Amino acid sequence: MSDTREYSDTRQYIKVNAGDVSAVGISDVGKKRTRNEDAFWIDESGRIILLADGMGGHDNGAEASRSAIEIFSELLNLKKIEEEMFDGTAMMDVPPELSKLFPVVDRAVEKTAGLLWERNNELRLDLPMGTTIVGLVIAGTNHVLWFHVGDSRIYRWRESRLDRLTRDHSPHQEWLDSGRQGAEPGRHLLTRALGIGPMIFADINWDRRRKGDLFILCSDGLTDMISDAAVERILRSENDVERIANSLVEAAMEAGGHDNVSVVVCRV
After folding, report:
1. What is the pTM of this model?
2. How many domains, in total, are found in the chain?
3. How crowded is the C-beta side of 162, counted as CA atoms within 13 Å?
4. What single DSSP character describes residue 16?
5. What is the span of the domain harbouring residue 162?
6. Who is most buried in 50, 59, 144, 159, counting CB within 10 A?
7. Which 8-state DSSP code applies to residue 194?
């Protein structure tokens, strides 16, 4: 097992190789911003990955994303997961190794949302702080669970096919889903984010994993800059997770780098 972590004011890099899991994460401040409001985390086993995109301006967005990562990484750790697997009621139609993860995610969302909501009330901010969150948990030998709040995304590359596993919590996504009826909403508005209200919930889903599955977690600093088709082209031309992560970030920079860009690429 190997674990490399590098941090600077403009760039964060984590690489984990552990057994059957290989993951690389990169977060870059981009070309237009002076501070990075994104944050991400990969546990030492590579089996828990988190990514958050903060909002609120000044240092508030960074505080929001860091708070989310700290809370989720504290609650959603391997020891906690093992404890949950022997405690609680199994969910119908959900494998036992996954069903006990749902309440852990719910508690992390509730704690983070409550903390940020209280901070906003305390500071009386004109622009409240908040953050997206997206996470991936590789559970046992057969399954993977993912969850999200906001418009940070997870993609899966399987058998040369790219699928987006998350649906943005945004008016723009609702406009797309409705067949583009009416005026097009702004792309950066959110209908759900941690901090904008005291009661927020995550969308949680799962699937059986297949050997060779590749997952991409990313902030909108990537997806606002390059299309899904561009992501797919990179995946068809690269195989190594580190080269893929670097290529995705470089593509966002070449397209303008207007926002912080964060990407985690994980192969199982």
Report:
1. 0.93
2. 1
3. 15
4. E
5. 2-267
6. 50
7. B
